[in-house]
Automatic annotation (TrEMBL):
GO biological process: phospholipid translocation; retrograde transport, endosome to Golgi
Cell location: Membrane
Example of a GO cellular component annotation carried by this entry: trans-Golgi network
Name of this protein: Uncharacterized protein
Residue stretches spanning the membrane: 20-37, 43-64
Family annotation (PANTHER family): PQ-LOOP REPEAT-CONTAINING PROTEIN 1, PQ-LOOP REPEAT-CONTAINING PROTEIN 1-LIKE PROTEIN
Length: 134
């Protein structure tokens, strides 16, 4: 499989069978925990916060890649606009609908990552325009 650049080779499966076994075990564990603690508001709140928190970190690898490359080369503007538009809409919706706190926190976090990606895009655009003027 080669060397992984991820810490502790996280999420690098030597074969598909091990991946399926892990997923089955994880689903079984979550099912048991839900059967035991499912009526607890604290458990449901924590489970929701973890799920939404993980989802809100999705744009972070792109931000790290942009930072390391000092460029957005190969990253489509339409993707960035889709992220910004969708996450902006989602954040406003959560506030207008009075959604639980974890929804609002994670939406703001994800939108801030989108804005950081957009700021990188703006810097690249400025550099490209200044080079074109020369």
């Amino acid at each position: 499989m080669g060397l992984s650049s991820r810490p502790f080779s996280f999420w690098q499966w030597p074969n598909y069978t091990q991946y399926i076994e892990f997923q089955a075990g994880f689903i079984l564990l979550q099912s048991i925990l839900f059967l035991i603690f499912g009526r607890s508001d604290i458990y449901v709140w924590i489970l929701g916060f973890v799920a939404l928190g993980l989802e809100s970190t999705l744009p972070i690898p792109q931000l790290i890649s942009n930072y390391k490359q000092r460029s957005l080369y190969g990253f489509r503007m339409s993707t960035l606009l889709g992220w910004l538009g969708g996450d902006s809409f989602k954040t406003v919706y959560f506030f207008l609908q009075g959604s639980p706190l974890q929804f609002k926190i994670c939406a703001i976090f994800q939108l801030s990552i989108d804005v950081a990606n957009a700021a990188s895009e703006a810097e690249d655009l400025e550099q490209a325009l200044s080079l074109a003027e020369e």
